[in-house]
Design brief:
Number of domains: 1
Radius of gyration: 15 Å
CATH architecture: Roll
Strand order of the largest sheet: 2-1-6-5-4-3
Number of helices: 3
CATH class: Alpha Beta
Strand content: over 45%
Helix content: 25-40%
Structural class: alpha+beta
Distance between the termini: 42 Å
Order of helices and strands: HHEEHEEEE
């Protein structure tokens, strides 16, 4: 019974933060994710730019905007989701195209969320080729 309730709850939340995350990447409006973030967000990125640190939510999304402003999304695919009572993890594969060189970059993003009143991002990992 608990698992059925959890599934209904997840469906009603549009699979946690999938929609706002997709919109942020497609529209390059990363600051829109501030309202879906904890007070501090940990960033751990490898490629295309090595970034590691604990940032206030506004600074975190400004940093991500700075990194990805020269890329546009070519393809976006959710690959995994794991939900427990207070913590959730979602994995997203994105193929970016460099706006000037047209080179493609494949990245896997792993979004870690915790439930406060609603789901809030607290850690974002970026792994690339």
């Amino acid at each position: 019974m608990q698992s059925v309730i959890l599934l209904i709850l997840l469906a009603s939340q549009k699979f946690l933060l999938m929609s706002p995350i997709e919109e942020a990447f497609y529209l390059q409006n990363y600051q829109a994710l501030e309202k879906h973030s904890a007070q501090f967000v940990i960033l751990e990125f490898e490629v295309p730019c090595r970034v590691t640190g604990n940032y206030q939510r506004q600074q975190a999304w400004q940093k991500i905007a700075q990194i990805f402003r020269k890329y546009k999304v070519k393809e976006l695919l959710w690959s995994a989701m794991h939900v427990e009572q207070e913590v959730a993890v979602q994995s997203l594969n994105i193929t970016f195209e460099d706006k000037t060189t047209r080179l493609l970059i494949n990245m896997k993003f792993i979004f870690f969320m915790k439930r406060q009143k609603e789901w809030k991002l607290f850690l974002v990992k970026g792994l690339g080729n």
